Amino acid sequence: MSAPQEHRDSASLGKKALRGGTFLAVATVIERLARLGRNMLLARIIVPDQFGLMALTMSVLAVLGAITEVGVSHAVVQNKRGDTPEFLNVAWWFGVVRGVVVGILAILLAGPVARLYDEPELGKLLLVAPVVILFTGLTSPKVFALQRKFQFKATLWTNQGAALLGTMLTIVLGFLLQNVWALMWGAVFEFFCRFVLSFILCPIRIRFRLDRVSVRDLLKFTRGMAGLSILTMLVIQADTAVLGMVVSAHQLGLYAFAIALAGFPLGVFTSVIEPLIVPVLSQAQDDFEALRRRVLALSRLVWLFGLPLMATLSIVAEPLLRLLYGPPFGEAAHAFALYCAFVMVYMNSIVSFFVYVAIGKPELQRRFTLVRALLVVLLLYPLSVLLGIEGAALALLIAMVGSMAVQLFNLRRVIGLGVVSFLATIRAGAGAAACVSVPALLIVTLTHLPDWAKVLTCAAFGGACWALLLLRERRVLASLRQGSLRSPSEGRVGTPHSDLR
């Protein structure tokens, strides 16, 4: 391919990525704000222990889902034949089989798990919850195939559209039932809508005959994914499972609300980044130099905009929780702050994981996830017993930081990414966070303003910081529109030329 043609293709890729990412970001923020509004409302009509029970149910379901996870969606995006009818048919059957297996496991384990936690209602919930995984498996995999081409209309409708429908039904059921079943039926309805909308927008022809080449390719990819989901689940869901044994359902409910709010940026990040970045990196799966430039540039932006946000949220945690959910939820402020730090590190780890997915070797992520899981297993129970919900959040944070250190050395070995170069990407974000933290701390600790005034004032400082960052990074955003992501100062990311082309 000639240099001018390569440049034009690269520019087109960047424009598609920017346009698709913008649509995803706007839709995801709207959906997440709707969920936040739902939680604010339901927190005042449903007692916290019911949310704790729902958190336990979804934690158990996550375990079963992780055991059977085979990475079909990633395989469809990564594989060059992922958009063919033969491959999509095989991918759909993989998802359906997984949903059936989860349902059978849930029925068999419902009674024993309910007795383990001494929660009879948990057994009933576990008989219904697996329907969520079944509807996920029934969803048309063509949605993921379109993401490779940066066509996100189907993703927006099936994910964010279904989420908004589920949120509305949950609010209605919350007023009518005022218990955990409002949350459960709302979740089931959301994933049913996702399944229906996916086939309306992205229909595929289902066949009983499976293409051998597609089966072989999918099995090869899923072997690399084997075990990664269950190890990842230990970080995402183990805290809820362990806390269910050592704290009251009331405390667990407070914790569930706190981490849901702290995870708000992570939810937006994963919803936007996963469908956007995987295909971008996949385009450079044979060029490690390009991968290094992209990882460094992306990591710098994650730290730059994420650290000031997390710093502001952590400092204003107690008045924010009281304002949104009610006075009792202020008890979870310290756990909320620790979980914010965990989320920040987790977001950067996602970028590195996508490198392995892009080059078709997800098994290279296993060392990272294994170290992280081992640290969680070693730290979670003792710290939860000692410190309660704060101990659980602290265990997750320590495990994430320790495993991220291992990940950096792994990336150096695999694609030649320098550890010092990566650490240099934190510098600008740390400086921005420091500028926000000083006035926020003074406002929260030294003033006697009401909660709403403290939150709004700190949010104003945080918003001003973001506005300055957007202004300062305007050349970076302009370069993305032209097909590259380049730092205004190349030294910030530790390489002569860090860009996304």
UniProtKB/TrEMBL annotation:
<feature type="transmembrane region" description="Helical">
    <location>
        <begin position="254"/>
        <end position="281"/>
    </location>
</feature>
<feature type="transmembrane region" description="Helical">
    <location>
        <begin position="183"/>
        <end position="204"/>
    </location>
</feature>
<feature type="transmembrane region" description="Helical">
    <location>
        <begin position="301"/>
        <end position="324"/>
    </location>
</feature>
<feature type="transmembrane region" description="Helical">
    <location>
        <begin position="89"/>
        <end position="113"/>
    </location>
</feature>
<feature type="transmembrane region" description="Helical">
    <location>
        <begin position="393"/>
        <end position="411"/>
    </location>
</feature>
<feature type="transmembrane region" description="Helical">
    <location>
        <begin position="452"/>
        <end position="471"/>
    </location>
</feature>
<feature type="transmembrane region" description="Helical">
    <location>
        <begin position="336"/>
        <end position="358"/>
    </location>
</feature>
<feature type="transmembrane region" description="Helical">
    <location>
        <begin position="225"/>
        <end position="248"/>
    </location>
</feature>
<dbReference type="Pfam" id="PF13440">
    <property type="entry name" value="Polysacc_synt_3"/>
</dbReference>
<keyword id="KW-1133">Transmembrane helix</keyword>
<keyword id="KW-1003">Cell membrane</keyword>
<feature type="transmembrane region" description="Helical">
    <location>
        <begin position="370"/>
        <end position="387"/>
    </location>
</feature>
<dbReference type="GO" id="GO:0005886">
    <property type="term" value="C:plasma membrane"/>
</dbReference>
<keyword id="KW-0472">Membrane</keyword>
<feature type="transmembrane region" description="Helical">
    <location>
        <begin position="156"/>
        <end position="177"/>
    </location>
</feature>
<feature type="transmembrane region" description="Helical">
    <location>
        <begin position="51"/>
        <end position="77"/>
    </location>
</feature>
<protein>
    <submittedName>
        <fullName>Oligosaccharide flippase family protein</fullName>
    </submittedName>
</protein>
<keyword id="KW-0812">Transmembrane</keyword>
<comment type="similarity">
    <text>Belongs to the polysaccharide synthase family.</text>
</comment>
<dbReference type="InterPro" id="IPR050833">
    <property type="entry name" value="Poly_Biosynth_Transport"/>
</dbReference>
<feature type="transmembrane region" description="Helical">
    <location>
        <begin position="125"/>
        <end position="144"/>
    </location>
</feature>
<feature type="transmembrane region" description="Helical">
    <location>
        <begin position="423"/>
        <end position="446"/>
    </location>
</feature>
